[in-house]
Amino acid sequence: xxxxxxxxxxxxxxxxxxxxxxxxxxxxxxxxxxxxxxxxxxxxxxxxxxxxxxxxxxxxxxxxxxxxxxxxxxxxxxxxxxxxxxxxxxxxxxxxxxxxxxxxxxxxxxxxxxxxxxxxxxxxxxxxxxxxxxxxxxxxxxxxxxxxxxxxxxxxxxxxxxxxxxxxx
Length: 169
Known about the structure:
disordered C terminus; SpoIIAA-like; Transcription Regulator spoIIAA
């Protein structure tokens, strides 16, 4: 189900999978970032979310003030939730936010009890979160109907880079 009650965020919830998919939807405007992320905590608690995909690719650079707030207010509440798996989708070119996320994770590492994985884009992360569930095509179609399709990478329809191996010798 697409959730439209948090205006800054594009959110999808699947009760059967215990899954939340979250993307930023307010362009460069981060004025209500904190309020939106407090609402995400409430939604995750209320829905007993076990799997979360946070697509950082859609976020503008997270300010130092918001990073401090996340580390001191948001992360301590997040780690109390019954989350089993969390995916952070972030392109390797988003260096500022990658460093911000790495710092948050390093600070909260002793409290993190869930499996945390990084993917370049959302779709492979959803596959991993859902254990390749047969529900995933329906979830992707629902998301695409509202937000448009996830764009394939420049290398074809791959959403993760290929490993290129050269023969020895």
